[in-house]
Write a structure and sequence with these properties.
Blueprint lengths: L1 E3 L2 H13 L4 E6 L5 H13 L2 E6 L19 H10 L4 E3 L3 H4 L18 H4 L3 H16 L3 E5 L3 H13 L5 E5 L19 H6 L2 H14 L5 H13 L4 E10 L12 E10 L2 E10 L3
Parallel strand pairs: 1-4, 2-3, 2-5, 3-4, 5-6
Antiparallel strand pairs: 7-8, 8-9
Helix pairs in contact: 6-7, 9-10
Bound molecules: pantoate (PAF).
């Protein structure tokens, strides 16, 4: 595995890859790898000749009171995990390489960012869309792999790629969970053992919402209440939002139909966790 610190190095590496006729899969990350990241890398490697991973804790997607400074970082550990997953190029730039002095350009995706994480974290998706547009232009991969754990992020990126005619295929990948259902996340390291145990309520609550829909419930508010009530049984978990929406537009649904997204955000200790499930409603 090669490590690149500059955009110039990535471009030179990609030029050789293209000259060799190779296809390239790309996994953008903020590092502190877990099985969810490795799953994306392995899939990219299985479906493309070469796999490029970026490791960049992107400052523009964090709010002023958020965890940019203390976001977990361990380059040596990440590099060795990426190498074991078969990654060919690891791009780990400094902030100045991505946002040099005088930087002024940002990408704003409208509609799909209006609610949920977009409302809870003003400016977050502007930072995500901007860094992803830059990374897509730098790497110019054939396919880019995103996990569905950050479901709204996936929708924002799909919208951006469509709207800006960026020539890349976005590949959505299933959320990877711990055996007890907790969605894997770099932020799970913030959890104390007792909070880690309490956090399992989130997936149980989502499953109860999904099961209610599968059992015939068609009232979005009722499903939301079922999920909220289960989370409320766990005193260490503070719900920020539980939402039931159309899985494509992310707009709220009163009467459930088509593909439905049940999503949530909650505080567990200092960690802010998000998770979701989608359900296809039968006619
Ligand atoms: O999902 C993440 O890790 C980040 O939001 C991403 C897509 C790498 C952009 O910084």
């Amino acid at each position: 595995m090669q490590v690149a610190r500059t955009i110039r190095e990535v471009r030179a590496w990609m030029k050789l890859a293209r000259a060799d006729g190779k296809t390239v899969g790309f996994v953008p990350t903020m590092g502190y790898f877990h099985e969810g990241h490795l799953n994306l890398m392995r899939r990219a490697k299985a479906e493309c000749d070469l796999c490029v991973v970026s490791l960049f804790v992107n400052p523009t997607q964090f709010g002023p009171a958020e965890d940019f400074q203390r976001y977990p970082r361990d380059f040596a550990r990440d590099a060795s995990m990426a190498e074991s997953a078969g990654v060919d190029l690891l791009f780990a730039p400094e902030v100045e390489e991505m946002y040099p002095e005088g930087y002024q350009t940002y990408v704003d995706v409208a509609g799909v960012t209006r609610r949920l994480e977009g409302a809870a974290r003003p400016g977050h998706f502007r930072g995500v869309a901007t860094v992803c547009a830059k990374l897509f232009n730098i790497v110019q991969a054939d396919r880019v792999y995103f996990g569905k754990k950050d479901y709204q992020q996936l929708k924002v990126i799909q919208r951006m790629v469509r709207d800006l005619n960026i020539p890349v295929e976005i590949v959505p990948c299933e959320t990877v969970r711990e055996p007890d259902g907790l969605a894997m996340s770099s932020r799970n390291v913030y959890l104390k053992p007792v909070e880690r145990q309490a956090a399992t309520v989130l997936y149980r609550a989502l499953c109860a919402g999904r099961d209610a829909i599968l059992a015939g419930e068609r009232d979005g508010q009722k499903v939301q209440q079922i999920v909220e009530q289960i989370i409320a049984t766990e005193p260490l978990v503070k719900t920020e939002y539980v939402d039931v929406a159309d899985a494509e537009s992310l707009e709220p649904l009163k009467e459930l139909k088509g593909e439905v997204l049940i999503s949530l955000a909650a505080r567990v200790g200092v960690a802010r966790l998000i998770d979701n499930l989608t359900v296809v409603v039968s006619e």
